[in-house]
Amino acid sequence: MNEEKYSKLIGKLKKRLDEERFYHTLGVSYTSAALAMKYGFDVDKARLAGLLHDCAKQYSAKELFDLCKKNGLEITKIESEYPSLLHSKYGAFMAEHEFGTCDIEILNAIKYHTTGRPGMSLLEKIVFVADYIEPTRTVLPKLSEIRKISFEDIDKAVIMELEMTIEHLKRKNPDGIDPLSIETLSYYKEVH
Ligand SMILES: [Fe+2]
Ligand SMILES: [Fe+2]
Q1: Counting C-beta atoms within 10 Å of the first and last residue's C-beta, which end of the chain has fewer, N or C?
Q2: Longest dimension (CA), the chain
Q3: What confidence tens digit (pLDDT) does each residue in 119-140 have?
């Protein structure tokens, strides 16, 4: 992707996302690029995936539910109860149909950036971890520790991020835990 295309995309996202989400998006893009450098992945592809990961975040839960229905996307039980989870799935759909990305690796990195999934590709792990550690994040549990580990052992960072997120939901909203996150955590604990 050339610089002109990259800045055009940034311009489009700036119009759609609120300010905080926009800067988070840039942070995930830069951080995904940095992790790609560390782990020997295509840097350009990683920054594009990071840039698009929250492209559907401006929609309300109700809008996401309706948009997924309208476009024939499958909605799981937990997603119908907590439709804001659908910003990942619908984001992948938008990345393909609105932003013209047909790279399946990028689309999956967007689709699974909230829950993770067992057997993630390197790009999926990069975006998953970058979403947690990017520079505008300030108050997440074990943030500085996870930031450091992300550049040493990405699978370990995936485990820690899932543990922190699940822990947090267990306290605040146990019903809102996506079973796919639990499945992902046990998978990575087993293979690590
Ligand atoms: Fe997200
Ligand atoms: Fe995000």
Answers
A1: C
A2: 45
A3: 999 999 999 999 999 999 998 8
pLDDT lower than 70: segments of the chain: none
The C-alpha atoms of residue 79 and residue 60 are separated, in whole angstroms, by 13
User: Within 10 Å of residue 62's Cβ, how many Cβ atoms?
Assistant: 10
Calculate the CA dihedral of residues 189, 173, 19, 17 and round it to 10 degrees. 80
Span from the CA of 111 to the centroid of ligand 1 (angstroms): 9
Q: Hey, what are 29's tokens?
A: 């893009």
Domain count, the chain: 1
Q: Which DSSP symbol is given to 29?
A: H
Amino acid at 37: M
Residue-number span of the structural domain to which 102 is assigned: 3-191
Tell me the residues surrounding ligand 1 (ion) with CB < 5 Å: 54
